[in-house]
Amino acid sequence: MSIGVRELRDGLSRHLAEVRAGRVIVVTDHGKPIARIVPIDQPTALERLIEEGRVTPARHRRRSTPQPIKTAGTVSDLVADQRR
Q1: Half-sphere exposure at residue 47, Cβ-oriented, CA atoms within 13 angstroms
Q2: What is the per-residue pLDDT for 50?
Q3: Residue 15, domain CATH
């Protein structure tokens, strides 16, 4: 089932009842799919692949992102300086 954002907003309770009944809803914005609402008891694609043994979860967590570098100029200025 595919519905637009406005239709989802206007009939949210009705559409959530459909999801509770086991249906999957694809939400579109100007005709482009942007989200999928699935019943919580259905495993995700990743969970299915892990259960099948086709994917192994990461053993270590990702490293945290580095701290931003403090500069006095814009990114364009930094790039221009590096090109000189």
Answers
A1: 5
A2: 93
A3: 3.40.1620.10
